[in-house]
Amino acid sequence: MDAFILQILNGLDKGSAYALIALGLTLIFGTLGVVNFAHGALFMIGAFCAVTMQRILNLSSTVIDETQKDFLGNPLKVEVPYVESWFGEAAGAAIQDWSVPLSILLVIPVMLLVGWAMERGLIKHFYKRPHADQILVTFGLAIVIGEIIKAFFGANPIQTPMPSAFIGTVDLGAWMGFDPGSVAYPTWRLIYFFFSAIIIAAVFAFLQFTTFGMVVRAGMADRETVGMLGIDIDRRFTLMFGLAAAVAGLAGAMYTPILSPHYNIGMDFLVLSFVVVVVGGMGSLPGAVLAGFLLGILQSFASMNEVKALIPGIDQIIIYLVAIIILLTRPRGLMGRKGVMEE
Q: Fewer CB within 10 Å, N side or C side of the chain?
């Protein structure tokens, strides 16, 4: 039972990242009808926003410290971070320690701007083009963004530590009535799961309970009719593209303590996320979230040593195997709508 619960938690952890990226992908496809192969690059940009925030908070100046002397008795020159100079040593150190959560303040405006620029500068010219053209141009854009990141940050993964308060594990076994220590799970992974749940709930609440969201949902169902009512649906869809970019960026930034960001991290998540979207059903937001968590859990169980001993390599193909089975039995995916990508 302990091993079962741990695998469920591992699956929810992986599924959180899949669901967030797939949610943004589905928002873009559902509103604009664009198959965006650059969405993984948005996840990567968010991750490197966290790296950038860490470097900004580590900027320092050289000062002379009279309390430290060299062997000749001369005061030493030391590097003092600006945040420590401005806010004091204790507060400055705390701000540096919380660089990943604080990167949210950078991620949101940056990703909204990137999403707006991507949609206005490139995507809008491909609305009425075939999906193959959209895939080619956005995939090319993803490669360009990856090379730009590589040029600025290098090719090696960059460690981005979590706040020290979240280092360690949470004893879930004691909470569940099992033996203490039987179900211990990394604290930050639990934080990421709850963070993802909050973002997903916020997106659904925004679409369900706000006037803006209701207009967007109406536009997703019948764009022409909404436009005939005098509503600038294109402007709202552009804002939704920015929102989808922000969701992907937030997912990437908060995932950096779990997986050190590198210039190819977007591609690693992109393919899996598209499988998630297809399994959930193209254009279905609930389907994307459901499929994300479902495939994350299945991948987690497939990675168990006992399972891999029976079926070697199953952890590498389980997601694609499940996708084939589901699409053979339900061609529209788990919750796909009739008419989406059926031409």
A: C
User: Apex CA 139: angle with CA 251 and CA 292, to 5°?
Assistant: 35
What is the reported pLDDT for 123?
85
For residue 263, give the DSSP letter: T
Asked if pLDDT for residue 340 goes beyond 60, the answer is: no
Closest alpha carbon to 280 in 321, 315, 243, 327: 327
- The mean predicted confidence, pLDDT, of the chain is 84
- 237 in Cβ contact with 31 (< 8 Å): yes
Specify the length of the chain in residues.
Answer: 343
The neighbouring-strand residues paired with 60 are: 81
Angle between helices 2-32 and 265-280 (to 10 degrees): 80
- Rounded to the nearest 10 degrees, the angle between the axes of helix 39-57 and helix 131-153 is 20
Name all domains of the chain by residue range, CATH numbers in brackets: 2-56+96-329 (1.10.3470)
Global pTM?
0.87
- pLDDT value for 54: 93
Contacts (Cβ under 8 Å, ≥6 apart) of 79? 60, 61, 62
Look at residue 108 and tell me whether its pLDDT is greater than 70: yes
Cα–Cα distance measured from residue 292 to residue 286, given in angstroms and rounded to the nearest whole number:
10
SS (H, E, C) 307-327: HHHHCCCHHHHHHHHHHHHHH
C-alpha–C-alpha distance, residues 299 and 293, integer Å: 10
Residue 171: pLDDT over 90: no
C-alpha to C-alpha distance for 201 and 99, rounded to whole angstroms: 25
Q: Of 1-5, 37-41, 145-149, which has the strongest mean pLDDT?
A: 145-149
Picking from 52, 103, 100, 114, the residue whose alpha carbon sits closest to that of residue 243 is: 114
Judge contact between 276 and 322, C-beta under 8 A. no
The Cβ of residue 268 has, within 10 Å, a number of other Cβ atoms equal to 14
pLDDT value of residue 333: 81
Nearest to 266 by CA among 249, 281, 283, 280: 249
